[in-house]
Amino acid sequence: MNKALFIKLAILAVVTLVLIAVLAQIGGLVRERQERQHEAEQSVEQSQAGPQTLLGPLLTRNCKETWAPYKDGVQTRNFTVALPPSQLQVGGRVTPDPRYRGLFKINSYAGKLSITARWDDFDRLTPPAENAGGRVECGDVVAMFSASDARGLRDVELKRDGHALAVKPGTTNGHYPAGLHAVLATPRTGETLELSLNVNLVGTQRLAVVPAAGSTAVDLQSSWPHPSFAGRFLPAEREVGANGFSARWQVSELATSATADAAAGKADLDTVAVDFIDPVNPYVMSDRAIKYGLMFIVLTFVTVGLTELLTGRRVHPVQYLLVGLALSLFFLLLLSLSEHLPFLTAYLIAAGAAAAVLTQYAAAMLGGWGRGLAFGGGVALLYGALYVLLTLEQTALVIGAVLLFAVLAAVMTLTRKLDWYGMVGDRQAVSE
User: Fold this and answer.
1) Whole-angstrom Cα distance, residue 95 to residue 108?
2) Strand partners, 196
3) Which of 50, 143, 316, 409 could make an SS bond with 45 (beta carbons 3.0 to 4.6 A apart)?
4) Which ranges does the record mark as transmembrane (predicted)?
5) What is the β-pairing status of strands 99-101 and 87-96?
């Protein structure tokens, strides 16, 4: 092999390693900014309220069973019975209320919810004894309502059959302690009980409702245009537009274990939920873009190398390095701009700046504005392809594969008549 060519390839390999290191440093900066955003989210949650999961109202009662004499005393057990409603309706409107910590935006919200719960049977509130000769005594009936972060309960009004009840902090339930409760008069046999709860609630990023009832209906509206419906159940009906969303869930106790799990005090409960997300997170998008950085550099180097082969124009390794640095710093420019501008705007500015710089530099490097414009146009197409890869996440693999295959096919077509042995000075050795 021609010694000069071998040396140049070795230098280009070193240049590529240097550029990989540059991309790694930029990637590290992206991850650092992501961590700082997470810290900002935690700061808002600590000073305001975190994601909210609502449970209830439930009727609970603390009971004590006493049975058979044992030595000098009797045996006892303390337990709590919980009765979910037969019907639960939750409705209201949630208004986005974003908070900021420096550059970082945290999606918090304020909601006004109306909750109606109905009970038709109260037999479970008077449990039978489980032991022979046992006697069960129970305390007051308590209506409890749990919110995962009670600091978010701004204003609460609880009524029984239209009459206001005195609300106290805490739920008196050790499994779901955060929330509120009210003591009720013991319902009479055959009586129907209805509780209505109006809540002004604030939270961060997620609102979830536990469908702990025989039948649960949840209706939510919001001006947030980018909801992500989560939890165990998707809405039965939903409308999402530029002005917000409306969604309706309908869940039966036949489809969920939430009723039994809530009564048993389990921690992991089924929910219907909505996340208030930003569809384009600049740090996630920048991190994904950097993963394609090496492919960009390799494709650009291949393009420059082909120009050398086809035109005889020599390009110095330092020029390769400068071109690679311009491609790499595009990602840093994108990251910094996207913290202040919408991601698409930041992308267009960063891509336009990089393409403009590379166009004028390639005109001098490759010997003419025609070649420079062609090179800059190719770079612009690469940035366009990258944006498509970023926005169409589900089809990114197939688009990337097609792009690489098209580039390989173009390289093979353009070099199909090149005399490779003649280029490296080995024609005579091969013929012998």
Assistant:
1) 9
2) 116, 159
3) 50
4) 292-311, 318-338, 344-366, 373-390, 396-414
5) unpaired
What is the pLDDT averaged over residues 78-90?
A: 92
- Coil, strand or helix: which one is 144? strand
Would you tell me how many other CB atoms lie within 10 Å of the CB of residue 392? 11
Q: Cis link prior to 235 (omega < 30° from 0)? A: no
Amino acid identity for residue 430 in this structure: V
Among 19-23, 101-105, 233-237, name the most confident range.
233-237
Long-range contacts of 370-374 (CB under 8 A, 24+ apart): 371/307, 371/311
Q: End-to-end CA distance of the chain, in Å?
A: 16
Domain that holds residue 97: 51-278
Inside any domain, residue 432 = no
User: Residue with structure tokens 């032991």?
Assistant: 131
The whole-angstrom separation of Cα 172 and Cα 197 is 18
Same domain, yes or no: 361 and 413: yes
Domain end residue (candidates: 217, 251, 278): 278
The number of domains in the chain is: 2
**Number of neighbours of residue 252 by Cβ within 10 angstroms:** 12
Greatest Cα pair distance in the chain = 111
Q: What is the pTM of this model?
A: 0.79
